[in-house]
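Lab notes, practical 5.
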Amino acid sequence: MKKLTLLFASLLMSFSLYANEVAGVSIQDQLMIDNKVLNLNGVGVRKMLFMDLYAGSLYTKTKTSDADDIINSKTPVAIQLDIVSSMITSDRMASTVNDGFETATGGNMAPVRERLDQFINVFNEDIVKGDRFIMLVLPGEGLAAYKNGDHLTTIKGDDFSQTLLKIWLGNKPADRSLKRAMLKG
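Output from the prediction step:
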């Protein structure tokens, strides 16, 4: 009986370790940032032509599979992007974020254009495999952007934060399978 219990425990532990590694990136069950503790809601991989680009993790206070609840959350939410491909460059990331905002706003970029330009500066420095970006949504305050643990900027406005979340969680997400994985809550 002891051997069976030991076998079951080791299988369970190896499953837990596997569940926290995506595309070669170790994903934590909790994110502690800016004096906030958030729980992993879900994680997946952004792919392009069968190539892994980044691991995308969604952190929330309470797990949920409702994208609208997350987009309109009154509690902090974070998206973590772990770069796993050298194909991700500063120019490509800036262009992709701009395209994401174009889609998320239905082409009405005027209300967020100036703040988007400020946010895109987060991607000005070289991006290399292993870089980690965190976008922390603080309702009522704005969006705090981090790269490899360094705070880069804060963008004011819940409208901006909600639009950014729609890139991954909106009705026309950048990657539907990544959205499903992030919302597995």
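Observations recorded by the TA: The beta strands are 21-22, 25-26, 30-33, 36-48, 51-60, 77-83, 132-138, 142-147, 150-156. DSSP finds six helices and nine strands in the chain.
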